[in-house]
Amino acid sequence: MDSSYLNFQDKHILVVGDVMLDRYWHGGTSRISPEAPVQVVKVSQNEDRPGGAANVALGLAQLGMTVTLIGIVGDDENADALEDCLNSAGVNCHFVRTASAPTITKLRLMSRHQQLIRMDFEESFAAEKLQQALADVVKEQIINKDAVIFSDYAKGTLAGVPELIRIANHANVPSFVDPKGKDFSIYQGATLVKPNLLEFEIIVGACESNDEVLERGEALRQKYGWKALLVTRGEDGLVLFEEGQPAFSLATAAKEVFDVTGAGDTVVSVLTAVFVTSKRLTDAVEYANQAAAYVISKLGTASITSKQLDAIMFARTRTTNFGVLSPSELLEQIQLAQMNGEKIVFTNGCFDILHPGHVTYMKQAKALGDRLIVAVNTDASVKRLKGDKRPINPLVHRMAVLEGVGAIDWVTSFDEDTPKEIIEALSPDVLVKGGDYSIETIVGADHILSQGGEVKVLTFVDGYSTTSIIEKANL
């Protein structure tokens, strides 16, 4: 994916929720305390990282998006430290400060990459006065935003989330919720809600089978009027329930789990970022799945940059789903490849008997881009075009031979007399024909040019012809 394709830099996301300071003290251990049977840690390094909703905002900023963060913090030094971390990362902070509670801080004592203890400093922010102040800031900041994320860690910041969702809906801004707690009715009317399996089962009851997950997930989505529900299930992957669409399940991309801290934050940030640019939730889920796999392979709260996400998705789509595909399967692969900034080249023909001229032509076509599609006329189509004695080789044989040509990435078929419909459906970046055509006479050229693509005419290698090969065979 080229981030310019998704236009991350052109989007502005609002994040509202429980902001936290994740503080790490690192040091070595070499003895037991004489005061109590505990290890003595000689602290040699301090590290502060944004956590909770602040980590969601940081993840969006790492992707290159414009981000505004709203939360409630104490009127203390930890709030200053958190704001400094976020400002240096490019996050615009609009905090409601209070002297009645401290900034939520989680202090972790680390030694040799192991967490020895965690100490939490927090009080609830659910007071009505704080909630009204928060809502006022949201009303002011939500204008002209592309989406809002509500990141709920049950610390009280989102005690008034029903009103915040109404504010978002009134502003026509899609809302994505990372929920918490035993009552999901407070998120009614949101665009998408993303619980993990444990949070989901707290609401719907334990699910003994995948069928129960699917049945209860869709029922829950409908009950609260969400356009989509995404359930993350750890090693069992993710399942998306989208209004008007069948459930979409995806296996986990994780290969090694080192630390799950911040994985949920990464999912909701990447999910939102990709959706507001591509407008396809299935695309957004695929990217979020890959991003989550990356961050749980790292120690501590981690995020992913657009370049790292580019590299992950590029590698994934380069190694799978090549060869013979149906047009619908091929369309999905084209979209992923184009997200990776790859140029798609398309050509078509009967290719009844493959000869060296065809192979040279394929190599020349592939040189015009990154991926080459060859669309082949079905047997019925060839017969209509060439006569009752053709094709010599049936479609399955012709496609199998083309699949073995190194320059070709994908092979598909079409049954019409011309490739007009399949060209318009796939919308490749470059349309190629061989022979003495003019661009104006090439079927599908007008569509490709109207989409900003290119149309090229290549000269066939002299001395090779399917018809002449057939004539020689009949001598």
Main traits of this protein?
UDP-N-acetylmuramoyl-L-alanine:D-glutamate ligase, elongated, six-stranded parallel sheet, 475 residues, single chain, 19 strands, alpha/beta, Rossmann fold
The spatial strand order of the largest sheet comes to 5-4-1-8-9-10-11-12-13
Our measurement of the CA-to-CA distance between the termini, rounded to an integer number of angstroms, reads: 54 Å
State the domain count: 2
Overall pLDDT level: 87
CATH architecture descriptor text of the largest domain: 3-Layer(aba) Sandwich
Q: What is the CATH superfamily of the largest domain? A: Ribokinase
Quickly name the level 1 CATH class of the largest domain: Alpha Beta
Number-wise, the strands total: 19
Proportion of residues in extended strands: 25-35%
CATH fold name of the largest domain: UDP-N-acetylmuramoyl-L-alanine:D-glutamate ligase
Provide the structure class: alpha/beta
| Rg | 28 Å
Helix content: 25-40%
Description:
- By secondary structure, the protein is an alpha/beta fold.
- It has 2 domains: 3-318, Ribokinase (UDP-N-acetylmuramoyl-L-alanine:D-glutamate ligase, 3-Layer(aba) Sandwich), CATH 3.40.1190; 323-473, Rossmann fold (3-Layer(aba) Sandwich), CATH 3.40.50.620.
- The chain has helices spanning 3-6, 53-62, 77-88, 128-141, 161-170, 197-204, 210-223, 263-278, 281-295, 306-318, 327-339, 356-366, 379-386, 395-403, 420-426, 445-450, 466-473; strands spanning 12-17, 19-32, 39-52, 66-74, 91-98, 105-111, 114-121, 147-151, 175-178, 192-193, 228-232, 238-242, 248-250, 323-324, 344-349, 371-377, 410-414, 430-434, 454-458.
- The strands form 3 sheets. It has a 9-stranded mixed beta sheet, sandwiched between helices. A 6-stranded parallel beta sheet has the order 14-17-16-15-18-19. The chain has a 4-stranded mixed beta sheet with strand order 3-2-6-7.
- A hairpin with a 5-residue loop joins strand 11 (228-232) and strand 12.
- Helix 2 (53-62) crosses helix 8 and helix 8 runs antiparallel to helix 9 (281-295).
- The longest helix has 16 residues, at 263-278.
- Mean pLDDT is 87; it is low at 1-5 and 255-260.
